[in-house]
Amino acid sequence: YAKAHGKARHEVFAPSMHAQALKQLHIESDLWRSIERQELLVYYQPIISLTNNSLKGVEALVRWQHPEQGLIPPDEFIPIAEETGLIVALDRWVLQEACQQLSLWQEQFPSVTPLTLSVNFSGKHFAKPDLTEEIDLILDQTSLKGEYLKLEITESVLIQNPESVAEIFQLLRERKIEVCLDDFGTGYSSLSYLHRFPLSILKIDRSFVSNLEIQDSNAAIVRTILAMADELGIGVVAEGIETTSQMLFLKNLGCQWGQGYWFSRPVDSETMTALIASKYGMAV
Ligand code: C2E
Ligand code: MG
Ligand code: MG
Ligand code: MG
């Protein structure tokens, strides 16, 4: 690329590309030590019922508190963790940490419908043959029932490894652990696997939610996803709700659940505890 555009351009671009590569290299080596150095954190974002505004559960979202670079968002290190294989250990750490926290919340805020926990799983992790043994161990250690745990995967996971994934779905089903399809609508969107795999929840990607009132086509897509999910008996969570009108729009279309900055940004466990307490009308 640089050659085709002449030498001058090459010289302009090279230093910054070099810096980028160096930064990446640093992140990569630091990431390996982040778990033992206890630099990873789990943030939580509420998932809310659009019908009655109640708190259905939380999604666990990892953060990295880097000693020099501060709080690093997952988009900057999850891809690196996936490349290097560290993602399996990272996902497992998040699962353990978040299950422990949910177990505490369920104890602290007993309710007729206990809170659920959604955890993001990379494809590398989801396809592991001993995945359910690992989950069993964590559920056992944290005294949490499988029915309150949901795993979020993306469409690509289903396509890359359909055979082993089908087996894992079966094992998860025996434990009442539900699987959610994250970022729905952004991937291959082959609808055949909605029949093939027992998915419980579709999470409509926020790109459809953000232009909902401006772009008629987005409203049509959301309407279609909702109708299809209803037909298949699958629940729907709309991601990335930022405004009152988006929330009302989705509610009027019959979308059951929502998540987004309008309700709350992802927050640390302490802030989430206060938020749950206020939802239940309790003091902490
Ligand atoms: P995701 O699972 O689709 O999570 C939703 C993302 O949207 C989160 O970004 C959340 O902070 C953001 N979000 C929520 N509401 C709004 C909104 O109203 N507006 C906007 N603009 N954004 C909103 P976050 O926390 O930066 O995470 C990014 C992605 O990183 C996640 O997307 C997920 O794919 C991945 N990720 C996060 N934690 C983990 C983890 O523990 N393991 C794995 N494998 N992936 C993770
Ligand atoms: Mg997710
Ligand atoms: Mg998503
Ligand atoms: Mg995502």
From TrEMBL:
Domain named EAL: residues: 24-280
Top-level taxon in the UniProt lineage: Bacteria
Name of the protein in its database record: Two-component system response regulator
